[in-house]
Every structure is written in structure tokens, then in C-alpha cells.
Automatic annotation (TrEMBL), chains A, B:
InterPro entries: Pyridox_Oxase-rel, Split_barrel_FMN-bd. Residues 1-23 are annotated as: Disordered. Pfam families: Pyridox_ox_2. This is Pyridoxamine 5'-phosphate oxidase family protein. It comes from Nocardia camponoti.
Amino acid sequence: MSSTEPVPLSPTPRSTLTRSKERGRVERAELDAVLDTGLICHLGVVLGDSPVVIPTVYGRDGNTLYLHGSTGAGNLRAAVDAEISVAVTHVDGLVYARSAMHFSMNYRSAVVRGRAALITDEDERMHALRVIVEHSAPGAWDRVRPPNRKEMAATMVLAVDLTEASVKVRAGGPVDDPADVAAGVAWSGVLPLRQVFNAPIPSPDLGPDIETPADVTARVSGGVVTG
Amino acid sequence: MSSTEPVPLSPTPRSTLTRSKERGRVERAELDAVLDTGLICHLGVVLGDSPVVIPTVYGRDGNTLYLHGSTGAGNLRAAVDAEISVAVTHVDGLVYARSAMHFSMNYRSAVVRGRAALITDEDERMHALRVIVEHSAPGAWDRVRPPNRKEMAATMVLAVDLTEASVKVRAGGPVDDPADVAAGVAWSGVLPLRQVFNAPIPSPDLGPDIETPADVTARVSGGVVTG
């Protein structure tokens, strides 16, 4: 599960794009880039006979995507040893076209499919939790209290191999019909979007000697989350 | 399908929260608020025996959520007359806690479940496309070329009733263990996030007499998309 050897992206027919192929990406590094800059994923599981899509946090280590949650979470229990899908999407801009059907969005997306395995080894479970926390809060793990035995017992950790995934990227302006361009029917262009951090809000019960750590302030001054 | 009579949220057991109930929302207006401020949804369908999650645009009219896509899109064809799930999630902040397992995110999410119906009536299909375009580009439909017969023939429109949904909202600071607060182990607080628009980028082939429309410039000066 924790091999870090790169693997080819999309070796299976069901994860190979058949439409809008020009948006498809085939390099494994592009999958990692989409996953590593996302904050949440959308996990799809089959519950009963029906799909359900749940937003959740995640982390990546090499070819493994880690998910976690409460042992009491029915949606997550349904994922154990089952086929699942995980999507991570960044919206980079709204594409205004000259005709309704050419409106679009600029985005980067990854859709992973695979079987979710329940991790039972305590060392790998702890490692996975570190990977997940460090994914959304890089630099935080080493300064906080690690999970205790009770918290570990209440937590389920799942792993999915990143061997089957589709990555799509759309960038640039609208693709208008030449007749609409010639007719000059409407404005067209892109309205770019990005996520930014605001100033951190310290907890009111913080001691006066605890300053905002550098890994937090660096994110704010860096400004952009994605885009 | 296009009834605008409000319905209660989550009337079914499977869409009623059993965990973290304090995050659950029961008013229908809160579902609409999450859906109406989102730009994309994640659609979950079962393809073969496996779930797949796809990012896509959408629109809402009353109790109906509309989706669309190419008639050639296998993922969307799999949704016709089938159980699906649609999730819309806003991430509002990263919650830094004093202990690893209390890290969290502030978010607003809606998870819809239901059966997707293929819309065949041409008037409703056109109406749905207007709803979808106006969802991400309000004010744009009336100034652009509407779909022509060929485009309509290549487009599939699906509708899902908004009668079964879970809405969750987390806001505020970390919920730390009292012992960790007393020990003063680490900084804790919230790093708020928001999406903002950048200046619009007009298409290079725009005629000189076509100015950026007010509905586009208003979004930029408004600044915030969500949050």
C-alpha cells in the first residue's frame, strides 16, 4: 500500500477518456498535482443499491490515497473492501461564450476508482492520520497532541491505490462557433476564480504566550490556495 | 418536475443524520442556500457495479435540480432512470486544533439522493438549459445565442427531485479536549477560506464595440464567490 514507485495513469479502459480527449492528461504527475492541491474530495460509495457522494478530507502518500472517519460512519463502513470512487476538482474560472451551449468552466479534476482497503496495522494507521492532517495543515502534526488510544479505536482508516484514475484539465477561453464570432452576438471571455485565505482567527481560550505558527501565517501571506 | 411548492427536507431515514447531528440542518431553505451558491456539483452514479463520481455543472428551479451533458456521455446515460447522488460542498475554513484528531474544516454541504429522470419535453429541456447557464452565469442567457436544433439534439437533460437531502454546516472554532486547552500544547484557531473572482479576461477576438457586461463586472467588484 505504501509503495512510492510511480505507476502509469489510467491503464484501464474504464478510466480512459472516450470524450473530450483533448482535456485528458496521461502523466501520473498531473494526478498528484490535482490531488495534492485539493482540500476535500468527494467519495462515492454504493449504499444498499444506491450511490451516495460524501465530502471528506484525504491525504496522499505515493500511490496511496488515505481516507478516515468514525468507526460509526455507515457511509465509510460501506466503502470497506468495496469499489469506490474519489473525485477532487478545482474550479479555475467561468467561461462565458457567445452561445449558451459553449458556456463552460476552467477546471482541473481527478476521478479515482478502486477498491478501498481497511488498514488494520497500527503503525500504518498512525502514518495515514499524519498524512491526512498534514495534507490540509502542513507542518501542524509535530506540534499537536497525537491521537491517543481511545481516539485511534474510534477511527477507521481506508486506503485506495492510485492505479486507476482520469485526470482532466480545461484552461483558456471559450470555443465559439465561427458564425457567432463573426456576428459579434455577445461578450465572451473568462472570469477567473481562486481560493484565498483570510487572516487566521485564534481560539479565544489560547494562552497569551502561544503565537500563530509560521506554517499558518505563511499560508495567509502566500494568499492563493489554488488557481 | 417543475413544481415550486416547498417540501420538507430529509423526510427519509437514509437522508436523516445519525451522527454529528448538531451539524445537521432541517430547513429546506438551507438546502437551497447551499445549492444556489455552488458552482459545481459532484454526481455519483453506479456504472457496472461500481460507483463513479463526476464533477459537473447544475441548476436549480424550485424542487428540481437539473443536470445536462452530451448524449454521448456514458456516465450521464448511466444516470437515466437510476438512483443517483449529487453533492455540493463549500469549504469555509481550516480548523486547527490542539490535537490531531480534532482538526476539522468549516463547511456547508448538501447531499441529494434520488432518481434521475430524462427530460424529453423540448420546452422543459430549453428551460433547464437556461436554468443551468443562469446558475453559473446569472444574467448571461438573454444576451447570447440560444441552443440551436443541432445542439439540442446532442444534449441530454436530467432532472432530480430535491425531496431527499442531507444538509450539514460546520462553523466556528476547534472543539478541543479540556486537558489539551489546560496544557496549552499548541496554537488553535481557524484559517478562513473564500473564493474570489479575478478581473475578467475578454476573448482576443472580441469586437472593439463589445464591452464587458454589467453582470460580469458586478461579480468581480462583489469579490467573494462564497464564504
